Each structure stands twice: as C-alpha cells, then as structure tokens.
Amino acid sequence: MSSFVSLHSSLDRRICLVTSGGTTVPFEKNTVRFLDNFSQGTRGAASAEQFLEEGEEEASSEREEGAYAVVFLHRQGSLRPFRRWVLGVEMLHLSKLCTSCDPGLKPVSTNKQTIFTSCLPQFP
Where are the domains of the chain? Predict the structure, then answer.
C-alpha cells in the first residue's frame, strides 16, 4: 500500500478509498447471530466510476495524469465499477472466433452487437 501511495503522490494524484457492498455486524463475541444488509454496491461502484471519470476530465484539461487514484474495497458478489453496466452479460458469449483477425482482437458476434455497443459508452 505504501508503494501505491508513493507512486500516486509523486504523480500529484489524490487517493480515494471507496467501500462498497453489504456489511455484517456480529451480535456477540462468538458470532452465532449477526445483522447483515444485502447492499448490491451500486452507489460504491458508481462513486468509483465518478472519481475515475472526474480524474480523466481534469487530466485532459489541467494535468498530464488523472487527478484521482481509486482504491475500491468491496464485498464479494457486489457490483464493481464499469462492470455493473454489463451485469448479466457474459462477455465471452458476445465474441466469435475469427481466424483472420489480430490475435488480441475478439470481434463481437453480429447478433450480439446491439447489446455490446449499448454498454460501450459507459466505459472510459
């Protein structure tokens, strides 16, 4: 963590910690009962996206680098930044095999292009 902070401090970036997802609080020392909320983490994921996007806007207008470095701590199974826009879409099912394409490129199947292109504007 100290190397992360040092790196981003040297680039004049502010560091933002975003926590996301539900929380569990035990009622007793030897946890048998607990209070739990089942937050999906929508607000946390959206906040992380906003900090990263704001950093990009500042970078293009004032600085060479983005203004924010984001540490995103989330509960297992909660929504994650940018991926929340394609929730329920299996990205590998959108692609097709292309033997004549660049090896790093996985083109989108024709019948799945509408789904894929509707998600693209949400990614920086």
Answer: 2-79, 88-124
Model confidence pLDDT, tens digit, residues 65-108:
568 889 999 988 888 887 776 665 555 555 555 555 555 555 55
CA distance 41 to 71: 15
| Residue 79: CA count within 13 A, CB half-sphere | 20
DSSP state of 109: P
- Helix (H/G/I), strand (E/B), else coil: 87: coil
pTM (predicted TM-score): 0.61
